[in-house]
Structure formats: structure tokens, C-alpha cells
Design a protein that fits this description.
This is Signal recognition particle protein. About 60% of the residues lie in helices and about 10% in strands. With about 425 residues, it is of the alpha/beta class. The chain has 3 domains: about 80 residues, Up-down Bundle (Four Helix Bundle (Hemerythrin (Met), subunit A)); about 200 residues, P-loop containing nucleotide triphosphate hydrolases (Rossmann fold), CATH 3.40.50.300; about 140 residues, 434 Repressor (Amino-terminal Domain). It binds guanosine-5'-diphosphate and magnesium ion.
């Protein structure tokens, strides 16, 4: 993928003590090839390398002590600029604020509508109304209702009405009458751009005059994503882009090209199917991620949001008093699971992304562990030392695992407790601060 290729290209320079004009040119050629392979538009990739080269010459890469690092920085800065430089917010000043979703079928509109509703509700204390204006498939409205239920946000739908323009207008009236200050309209999509779809979304757009029209696009679709973006932008002059499915393998290509083709900022990214898998888009962090440095800041931020601070303090006390038991262990696992897809999180750790790329880490990894802990009695959880051979047998049976697995978990647990005790003071505190602030 793009990260690997850029890494390789830049490695050409990293290793060398002496840099010549020739190997700077070589390196940039590789960078350009990596960009092209990642579906970055030809013209953009070319201009990109020209700009980096100009800067490199201006900064005298050839004579600096650490030219490799300087090149990485120049490439990173250029990537950041290409993706818009600054983070762009959403305009929430309407009364109510109307946010319209547009995009092809399967791009992730319905999922993202839910994620955004949840985000605005929890982060910005907004009263949100979700609107189902995808009238073609009964399942579409149902999908939105399931999402709404999950996040505790009302969903407005009219099952008998097949006119999305009317539904959207009625929904806004409903929002006004019911004290909702934010309306998110989920619309229908087609598999490809066609006349009927474009007319429909354009009519809804005209009728509701949204503060924010967000174009939702699947980042895995590469160059197609860019073409679709252009067509939608010509029609709607949208305000921002949402890049979904960035948890997949294809990272970067679409993100790098869209901004310069439609000249609209990427505002959010989707990184998984869960409602929490939404991030504000930061061009510089994305550049880091593309360069394989890992998006550590996002990772820590997400961990902080999910990890209850009170919980963290309690845990710290328990560790200090040597009272850490299996119940705490279980709640740790649940906290980790709440943070989202494991692979996604691991991918954000610098270096780990590559090392663990082929290792299958998923939520199921915890299933056996949870089953074992759930089969323990409360006493066994707080005093694991009381678990003897016959109890192990019973726990294995109750959890559908084997005695070996139970033994393994106990061993891990005792090792962990020992380590926690040892780390008490500096290390443990630091770890907890990272997790819980
Ligand atoms: P819509 O047709 O535009 O409304 O798309 P949906 O919201 O129904 O999403 C299509 C599929 O993509 C569903 O299976 C979603 O679960 C999935 N999906 C949406 N966003 C993401 C994401 O950020 N990451 C991953 N992995 N899957 C996503
Ligand atoms: Mg949908």
C-alpha cells in the first residue's frame, strides 16, 4: 500500500550519509510512483514531487546533517497541504441546522448519519433528528431506525410517503415543533451516477437549503471516488467530504486527490462499522498515517474518550492495594472493545501497523477470556488464588473451554498482576494517564 511504498522510497535517503542530487531525484520518482499506485491523479502526483523538490533545494537538503529526515518532513508537509492543511469544522448555526447527506449507494451515508448524530449529540450537546429520505427500499428506513435506537436519537420517517422532498420538509417542521436544533437527512443512492438520482438529490437540496451538504464517499473506490465527487460537486456545490471505510487497506489515494479536484475540505472520516468509529479529519495526522508513522494522537484521544476517568482512578487504587481481580480484568477488556476495531487501533501504533499487518486481531480474541471469567464465582474473581484443580475443571466446562486455556489465562493474569505491582509509581501512573487523562 501507499504507506509501505512511500516508506521504501524515503528509505532510499534515510540510510545514506551522503545525498546527491541524483538520489533525491530517484527518491522523488519513487514517491511519485507510490502516489500513482495509490490512485492519486497523475497531474497532482507530478506537481506534488515538483513542489517537494523545489522546497528541498531551497532548504539545502543536500548539505544538511540529516537529509533523510528533512525529506520525510518535506513530503509530510506537502501531503498535509494537499489534503487541505487545516481542519475544517461543520457549520452548526442554523435554526435548526440542516445537514444533508449525498453519495452513491453503499458509500456509507446511513451509517455515517448515525455516527454524526451520535457525535453531535454527545460532543456538541445538540438535539438531533435523523431523517429517513431513502424511500426506495423499506430496509433503508429500518436500518436508520435501528441506528437511531442504538444511539438514542429520534428518527423521522413516513413509511407511506414516496416523496423525499416532502418528507425532508415535513421533518424540518417536525424538528422545529419538537425542540430539535439539528436535522440530519439521510438520502437514497444509486450504484452509479444517474439522471434520476441526481435530480432527486438536487431537488431535496433546493427544498431544504442545508447549512451543510456532506458528500459521503467510500475511500476504497480510488479514482472512481474522485470522479463521483466531481459530479456531485458540480451539481450541489457541497460543503465537505466524508471519507468512509478508512479502516480498510486502501488508505490515502482518495484523501490525497479529492481536496485538490473539488477544492472542498474533507471534514470527517469513518473508520469502522460501529457508531463510535468517526473521527474529525486532521490533514497532518492523515499525512503521518500515510507515511506509516501512526496516528498516535488520534489513538490516545480515542482511548481517553472511551476510558472513564473515574474508572481509571479506581483501578489505580486497586492496583496500589493489590486488589486487582478478574472483574477489573473483564471491565478492562470491555473498555478496549468499546474503543472500536482492534486492528484499526493497532494500525495506529507506530511500527505496529506493519509488524502486525497479517496477524488477525479481532474482537473475537476476547471471547474465550470473557467466557472463562464469566464462569467464575464472585469469590474466584476477587481471589483468583483460590482457584484449585477441581474449580478449574468446572470453569472450563462452564465456559466451553479447556483446562489448558483456563490455566493460561490464570498464568497471564498472575503475571500481569505482578507486573502492575512492579510498575507501581512511575510506570503505572504514566500508563493510566495515557488511558484516562
Ligand atoms: P449507504 O448505502 O450509503 O447508506 O451505505 P451504508 O451506511 O448502508 O453502508 C454500506 C456498508 O458499509 C454497510 O455494511 C456499513 O456497515 C459499511 N460501512 C459504512 N461505513 C463504514 C466504515 O467506515 N468502515 C467499514 N469497515 N464499513 C463501513
Ligand atoms: Mg443508506
Amino acid at each position: 500500500n501507499l504507506s509501505d511504498k512511500l516508506d521504501k522510497a524515503l528509505h532510499l535517503l534515510k540510510g545514506h550519509g551522503k545525498i546527491t542530487e541524483v538520489n533525491v531525484a530517484e527518491t522523488l520518482k519513487e514517491v511519485r510512483r507510490a502516489l500513482l499506485d495509490a490512485d492519486v491523479n497523475f497531474k497532482i502526483a507530478k506537481e506534488f514531487t515538483v513542489r517537494v523538490k523545489e522546497k528541498a533545494i531551497g532548504q539545502d537538503v543536500l548539505t544538511t546533517l540529516n537529509p533523510g529526515q528533512l525529506m520525510v518532513k518535506l513530503v509530510k508537509d506537502e501531503l498535509t497541504d494537499l489534503m487541505g492543511g487545516e481542519t475544517a469544522g461543520v457549520n452548526l448555526t442554523g435554526n435548526p441546522t440542516v445537514i444533508l447527506m449525498a453519495g452513491l449507494q453503499g458509500s456509507g451515508k446511513t451509517t455515517f448519519s448515525g455516527k454524526l448524530a451520535n457525535f453531535l449529540k454527545t460532543k456538541k450537546a445538540k438535539q438531533v433528528l435523523l431523517v429517513g429520505a431513502d424511500v426506495y427500499r423499506p430496509a433503508a428506513i429500518n436500518q436508520l431506525q435501528v441506528v437511531g435506537e442504538q444511539i438514542g436519537v429520534e428518527v423521522y420517517a413516513e413509511l407511506e410517503n414516496k416523496n423525499p422532498v416532502e418528507i425532508a420538509k415535513n421533518a424540518i417542521a417536525h424538528a422545529k415543533a419538537n425542540g430539535k436544533n439539528t436535522v440530519i437527512i439521510d438520502t437514497a443512492g444509486r450504484l452509479a451516477i444517474d439522471e434520476a438520482l441526481m435530480t432527486e438529490i438536487s431537488n431535496i437540496h433546493k427544498a431544504v437549503n442545508p447549512q451543510e451538504t456532506l458528500f459521503v464517499v467510500d475511500s476504497m473506490t480510488g479514482q472512481d471516488a474522485v470522479n463521483t465527487a466531481k459530479a456531485f460537486n458540480d451539481l450541489l456545490n457541497f460543503d465537505g467530504v466524508v471519507l468512509t471505510k478508512l479502516d480498510g487497506d486502501t488508505r490515502g489515494g482518495a484523501a490525497l486527490t479529492i481536496k485538490s479536484v473539488v477544492n472542498k475540505p474533507i471534514k470527517f472520516i469513518g473508520t469502522g462499522e460501529k457508531m463510535e468509529a468517526i473521527d474529525v479529519f486532521y490533514p497532518d495526522r492523515m499525512a503521518d498515517r500515510i507515511l506509516g508513522m501512526g496516528d498516535v494522537v488520534s489513538l490516545v484521544e480515542r482511548a481517553q474518550e472511551q476510558f472513564d476517568e473515574e474508572e481509571a482512578r479506581k483501578l489505580q487504587k486497586k492496583i496500589a492495594k493489590n486488589q486487582f481481580g478478574f472483574d477489573d480484568f473483564l471491565s478492562q477488556i470491555q473498555q478496549i472493545k468499546k474503543m472500536g476495531n482492534m486492528k484499526d487501533l493497532v494500525g495506529m501504533i507506530p511500527g505496529a501497523g506493519k509488524a502486525l499487518k497479517d496477524v488477525d486481531i479481532d474482537d473475537d480474541a476476547f471471547k474465550g477470556i470473557e467466557a472463562i471469567i464469566n464462569s467464575m464465582t464472585p469469590l474466584e474473581r476477587t481471589e483468583p488464588k483460590t482457584i484449585n484443580a477441581s474449580r478449574k475443571k468446572r470453569i472450563a466446562k462452564g465456559s466451553g473451554t479447556s483446562i489448558t486455556e483456563v490455566n493460561q489465562l490464570l498464568k497471564q493474569f498472575f503475571q500481569m498482576s505482578k507486573m502492575m505491582k512492579m510498575m507501581q509509581g512511575g510506570g503505572a501512573k504514566k500508563m493510566m494517564q495515557m488511558m484516562g487523562g
